[in-house]
Structure formats: structure tokens, C-alpha cells
User: Fold these one by one.
Assistant:
Number 1:
Amino acid sequence: GENVEQHPSTLSVQEGDSAVIKCTYSDSASNYFPWYKQELGKRPQLIIDIRSNVGEKKDQRIAVTLNKTAKHFSLHITETQPEDSAVYFCAAEGDTGRRALTFGSGTRLQVQP
Amino acid sequence: GAVVSQHPSRVICKSGTSVKIECRSLDFQATTMFWYRQFPKQSLMLMATSNEGSKATYEQGVEKDKFLINHASLTLSTLTVTSAHPEDSSFYICSASPGLARETQYFGPGTRLLVL
């Protein structure tokens, strides 16, 4: 099955700096890669996603890049703000029949004011 | 749009009892829903895929007789934790996708289960 690895596990940045979180996946058949933000005790919220026919996608301060050859994808947050502090999860859809997601282990982002 | 609800939000029960958790898609129909479990400070682990009108597909290591899943309609899936034990204490979250094509999964608010 699919295996997703995520780094780093924790990330602390100063307000206004950029943050980058990286993920690798194992199943070359995977073609959908969402990123979720989860605040303590709350549901994961989709912040951006990318499909394998696209190399990069941007939405305001958030961008995701995908390298299918290397099987890795990254989340980029620019001009970070304290409210960006949360746990971020990457995921990959490895079983095209069931649309099940395999999640990375998560990155705890702390933005220092 | 694409709102998923869960009930109850939290439950405390005694060891040996059964607990039912409901997952509803409020403004769309979902032929498939997913159930995840999340332990403190850990990632979401897929437990099973719930299919409307058919049996659920369980992930390796998840006991189907302990975690009963029923997907009775296109807007409702239930997870019943039977004979719950303290080690079953966790955050249970469901998700659903609108439409039949591959689309974004939206998560419910989760149910925090504490088994004493």
C-alpha cells in the first residue's frame, strides 16, 4: 500500500518568514495530494490540493509543488502569521478504486510573533 | 457546501459497553465515507471505507467484529465500537466526498471517545 513520509515533525518560524513542509510517497499510481491543517481538538481542514497532472498550485500565501518523478510534494506558506500555527498533514490517494487517503505523520508549525 | 457532521462530539463510557458514532453528509450525497482514528499527537489512521448498501472494507489490523460499520443511506454512516476498552479511547473522525468522481474529502468534527 501507500506510504507517506513527512518532514519536519516540528517547525518554528518568525512571523513573516516562509515555512516549507515536505512529503514523499511510495505508490507511483497515486495522483491526488491534499494538505490539511488541524488545530487542536478540531477537524482537519483542507487548505490546498494538487493532482498529478499539475506541477504547482498556488492560493494566496499557500502553494504546493509536486514532483512525480521523485515522488515528493511540498507545502509552502509565505508571510506566515501566528494564526498559521497548527499541525499540517499531507496525504496521498494511493488506491484509485476506493479514494482512501494515506496521511503523513504531521508537522507542528509554530509561528512566533 | 460539503458539510459533514458527527454525533456525539464526545462520549465517556464504561469498559465493556458499546458506543455508536454517527457521520452525516448534510448537503450532499456520499456513496463512500471513511472512518479514521487519531491518537494524541499522532496522524490520522484509516480504519475502514464505508460503502452505501454494501459491506465496509477494513484496513489491515482493524477488527471488523469490534468496529461495526453501517452505511444505511447516502447521507449516513455509523461506527459502533463494541465492548469498548480503555485502549479504544481515541479521536474518531469520518470523512466523505461529494459526487462519484474523485473529489476532495471533507472531514466531520470528530468524536472523542474515553473508555474508563
Note: Residues 86 and 115 of chain B are 5 Å apart (CA to CA).
Number 2:
Amino acid sequence: DGGITQSPKYLFRKEGQNVTLSCEQNLNHDAMYWYRQDPGQGLRLIYYSQIVNDFQKGDIAEGYSVSREKKESFPLTVTSAQKNPTAFYLCASSIDPSGMSTDTQYFGPGTRLTVL
Amino acid sequence: DQQVKQNSPSLSVQEGRISILNCDYTNSMFDYFLWYKKYPAEGPTFLISISSIKDKNEDGRFTVFLNKSAKHLSLHIVPSQPGDSAVYFCAASAPSNYQLIWGAGTKLIIKP
């Protein structure tokens, strides 16, 4: 059955290390997104991609990087430049990249990253 | 600067009664609004949406009301059921804008 998978569910990282969060979808969606959620705040957009080999920065892209080499995959790397990386990270996808703000987004289960 | 505000962090409602979740926004350019529901350790799932050309949209037990002059929308759940216990997020978008702006969420607890 179709859906979005994120791995791992929990991730621990030492300060100064880069870490990559996986996001895979088999919904054949063109658009994919990465959000960050902190306690007491709404979801904030890190990066989004409307099509393979193309992506744009969201509101809080500093300290993060992404790639979109395949339609199904949109991995997020949290670099050592990210000052406060401990958060819950959510990946999402939607069918129509031209209607990104109105098209329903489907979310993965999330990855909780803790920096020790 | 929070453009979408959900001022109640939590709400407790008796099973069978009406749950009303509120959302306020400041950007008058927003023209499309969505509600998502999130269970612990899961990603949000889409619940219901409304365009600014309407003031009400209904889907089963869920109804969203939009008051453009007050920049306020609300989600009504009638009757409330135990499975409705979750965090509810309000989100909004403006024309030709690539992203949704999210509220901080309201945790709804349905008491038996």
C-alpha cells in the first residue's frame, strides 16, 4: 500500500556531526517537503521540491541541505551548522506541484532528532 | 510574527458533546485554510479545508466556519468521539504562495 516512510524514528547525534534523515514515498507525487516541529510551534518549512533535481529553500533552510535525485526520495541532511537541531522532523508529499499551497499534503510518521 | 494563531494549547470536551477549535490569522491575503489532525508519533493527516469564497464547509461530523471580517475560523466536531483525541493544526495559504503557514496546534482531549 502507498505511503510515506521516514527513517529512523528516533535519531541521536553528537554535536558537530552531520546526519541524514530519510524520506521515501511510493505515491507517485511530484512535490515533497521537509518540515520541522518544535514544542508550542506550528510546522515550519525547511525545504521543498516540486520536481526531480530541483528544490527551493523554505523559511528555515540554514544549516540544512537536501537532494532530489529520484522522484521517490527526498533526504534531508542536518549539518553541524544548524545551531539548534533537536526537533521533530516531518516529511510530506503532494500530487500537484503547481498547487502546492492548496493541494493536500500527506505526511510521514516523522523522525525525532536529539543532539547530545 | 505568527500569522496563524491557535490560542488554546489544549481543550477538554465530554464525549458526545461539541468540540470547537479556533484559529485566528493576521494576513488578509490568505484565501485557503486547512485543518490537519495529528496523533502522537504520527504525521499530520488532512481533515477538512475551506476556500475564502465560502463561509462554511461540512464533511460528516466536521464543519469548518470562516469569518473573513474577523479573520477567524473554527472547526466544529459533533458529536465528539474518543478517537478525536489528537492535536489539531490550522494552516493557511495566500495566492501564488508556495507554502502553508501553520498554527501551533490545539490538543483536544475527549473525556468518556
Note: The mean pLDDT of chain B is 93.
